[in-house]
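Hey all, sorry for the wall of text incoming. These are the two entities for the joint prediction.
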Amino acid sequence: MIGVDWGTTSLRAWRLDQDGAVRDRRATAQGIMAITDRQFEPVLRDIVGDWLADGERRVLLCGMIGSRQGWHEVAYLPCPAGIDEIAARLTPVAFAGAAVRIVPGLATIDENGVADVMRGEETQILGAAACDGTARVICLPGTHSKWAVVSAGRIERFSTYMTGEMFAALAEHTILARTIVAGPIDPVAFTAGVARATEAGGLLHHAFGVRTQVLRQGMTEAAAYAYLSGLMIGHELNAALDGVATPVAVVGASTLAALYVTAIASRGGVAIAVDEAASAAGLARLGERASWT
Amino acid sequence: MIGVDWGTTSLRAWRLDQDGAVRDRRATAQGIMAITDRQFEPVLRDIVGDWLADGERRVLLCGMIGSRQGWHEVAYLPCPAGIDEIAARLTPVAFAGAAVRIVPGLATIDENGVADVMRGEETQILGAAACDGTARVICLPGTHSKWAVVSAGRIERFSTYMTGEMFAALAEHTILARTIVAGPIDPVAFTAGVARATEAGGLLHHAFGVRTQVLRQGMTEAAAYAYLSGLMIGHELNAALDGVATPVAVVGASTLAALYVTAIASRGGVAIAVDEAASAAGLARLGERASWT
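and here's what came out:
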């Protein structure tokens, strides 16, 4: 089969063996925001046409392709939800010559009645849970970091943190932009930022301290970038690690996942980085259970 | 004398009687960022020239005009600092026909060794402390909210919160921009945001909840604007009210000050709004103590 993680700004496609192994892979910047006039069908055919010509007949899509801005809006499935419930709710879209299905996103409600949603991450979580049976808490860091609790193979609940997006907004659209230079992460400054997040004052105060430390206390502008990154991740961990005793599986690009593993360890937690190809594994697992006829 | 609060984006000038009463006032958008080629002297003469022609010979400036980007960089004075210490450090700049002085900003270091700074707010605090002798905690809400503890007439310490600027960055430069419409503050949604800030999850999670509540739970885009405002102010209060038992004097534009008074009251605190003209009162008090020769 073919698995596709079709997100807002990127598209990743895998050709998968019957046992879920990746035979071939492709990535493009043709996220749904880059598709004009709803030309999802021809774009998909363009990207995986040779695999179809070679005999593939099943295509499973996850991510924002199932949103209102995507190919076909697929209703969120409420948590808790396991692989069988999700596989039972795959939604077909018309495509000549192959069966194409979209994975539903998940919705949850926290103890205070506020909703949260994901699209695409549910598939990564299913893949990561397959990779590592011991981890019950799964972290997917990024623009909108997701933390999910998995129990007996079902996604029980999850929370989203705007960590990556707020980091970018602060670094680019506030006074901090004048005293920060982006670049490779300085590990000492990063860890100092993670630690600062545990001190009194809160994020709104700690963020201003990035500027004063550069102007008054000799922090370099390159270190300020790493420190702010640590500060944001540290504040995410303040909430996300609350009450978490089990190991955390961190699923993401290797550099970012490594930062999270370091930050979690600095808080006394145990974290393991899981291969980012969790999407492919999740798509393979769902594909096995899908009704393709 | 003439008092001027010359900030980054605005300039406010007052003609003051000997007893500190405001005889006349003026406001322009000629903040220091709007001044080209360092033409501070002619701009000032343009704005208060008629008052000078009418006999004024003393001009006291506070705010970012004393920064590196201003007319003349004036070193920060360390806290604790009272009115006499600040008055002793007024810095003259050359100006034909009048004595012009700049008020120094203040610097402080928190218990964890991180610096904080203010320029202009020290003058407002001195003015507000004169207006209301009972309040020991003074809040100046805004782009960068300042909270100061005043004891025996001296500014003991203070903290800055990037509340207003982070609110704007979130509302304009993140995904929240798509589900928020700016407008008058809906008081019910505002108070709900203030309350939400006390719940588990932290600011990074609560901010994402603004979007999900609009998309999934029927919150209007106008209410989302007020809710996000309440959320940000609520997170500021989480830190700023920690350990504060005395009444808080809130100094600022009436609409914003009223929101803070409401938010502080909803947390069981006591707050009073103080006239925003605290700058003029502070400049008058400093002017009385200055050496003008």
